[in-house]
Amino acid sequence: MKYIFPALYGLLAYFTIRLLTDSVTGMEFWQRSWILNGIEMGFCIAMGYVFIRACNRLIAYYDRQWQDHFSTGRIGKELLGVFLLNLVVQNLFMTPVVALTDNGLQWFDLADINTIPLFYALIYYGVKRSSAYLQAYIQNKLQLEKITNDKLETELKFLRAQYHPHFLFNALNTIYFQMDDDVVAAKKTVEQFADLLRYQLYDQQEMVGICQEIQYIQRFIDLQKIRSSPRLRLQLHFDEQLQDEKVYPLLFLPLVENAFKYIGGEYLLQLELRKQDGDIYFYIHNSIPAVAPEINGLPIEREKGIGLENLQRRLELLYPDRHHFSAGIKEQEFVAELKLTLQT
Q: Which residues of 79-112 are buried (b: 16+ CB within 10 A; e: fewer)?
């Protein structure tokens, strides 16, 4: 088609002009001299090759000038260039032929010569450019999505990193005091601490198995029990139906960490993680002191809110329209519920 199409293009323009001319003058194409018809068709075929080649070179020139940047100004300049190129080429090849044949150059001949090839030239330009426009549009969309995803990924990493300092401080503080009383227990705590860090630092895949997350929660609870009050009463339930489900990591940790951080009163902590109707339900509540203490002059509810807002933002990024989260104080207990709808 690279070599045949220009000839077809020229013949299409010729026969369209011939049809309109014959309609106006009453002439019949097949009654004319075939030598004359052949000469006219030859000129039109030559016009097709010259125009197509020149148009392709013009488009290549614009590509070098602007590369992949498509704007209204560029498209306007390209259309103007195609219009002027077509005007020169069609008059260079067609006008002399029409002027020297039949009744000479009439006003309707001039109108046909400058209208019909232009119509086909614009169609050719549109078809030629449509793939480039579509590709540029797709590339721009992909680039925008990549920038958006990079921004969200950076925000997620920042939100996850906010959990670590408090966790590190508490763990190291526990180990520090254990060193004076029980070195063996301190070593065991270090091992538990290392396992938790390994999960946080190295298991950075996009999603993890729910069993890994449960194992992480259990290790975290074991570490917290070391520094908790002897009055602590734990009630844990992990649904055995949870096996191969995939979740984003460290979404339950802030709720468990808050429960241990602010537990008081009867020192009761209940945690439940179950599967129901294809969704994952996480429920945790802990008793709190009758009088809420202040930290740095702020009520603990205010400081809790920072962590919960952090978690809420992560859920919005990771589970848009596929989660339900609520948290608050109910009858001397802090209750948090999280529902995750898994993708099928």
A: eebbeebbeebbeebbeebbeebeeebeeebeeb
Residue 207 contacts residue 248 (beta carbons within 8 Å): yes
Closest alpha carbon to 44 in 128, 137, 120, 111: 120
| Residue found by looking up tokens 């330009």 in the block | 125
> Residue 285 forms beta bridges with which residues?
270, 335
Report the predicted TM-score, pTM, of the whole model to 2 decimal places: 0.54
User: What CATH number does the domain located at 162-341 have?
Assistant: 3.30.565.10
Angle made by CA atoms 217, 222, 225, in degrees to the nearest 5: 120
- For residue 247, the cross-strand partners are 208
Exposed, middle or buried: residue 232 (CB in 10 Å: 0-12, 13-18, 19+)? Answer: middle
What tokens were used for 160? 């996850």
Give the highest mean pLDDT range of 37-46, 187-196, 331-340. Answer: 331-340
Rg (CA), the chain: 38
For 203: left if phi > 0, alpha if psi spans -120 to 50, otherwise beta; the answer is beta
Which 3 state secondary structure label does DSSP give 99? Answer: helix
Do residues 117 and 13 make contact, with C-beta atoms less than 8 angstroms apart?
yes
Cα gap 326→286, rounded to integer Å: 15
Q: Which two tokens stand for residue 266?
A: 């009867």
Residue 190 and residue 173: Cα distance in Å, rounded? 11
* Dihedral of the alpha carbons of 174, 176, 178, 179, in degrees to the nearest 10: 160
DSSP 245-279: -EE-TTSSHHHHHHHHHH--TT-EEEEEEEEETTE
pLDDT tens column, 79-93: 888 889 888 988 888
What does the domain layout of the chain look like in residue ranges? 5-146, 162-341
Q: Tell me the pLDDT tens digit for each residue of 285-325.
A: 999 887 665 555 555 444 455 678 878 888 888 888 899 99
Assess contact for 342 and 210: CB atoms under 8 A: no
Query: Pick from 43, 62, 219, 41: which is nearest to 125 by CA?
Result: 62
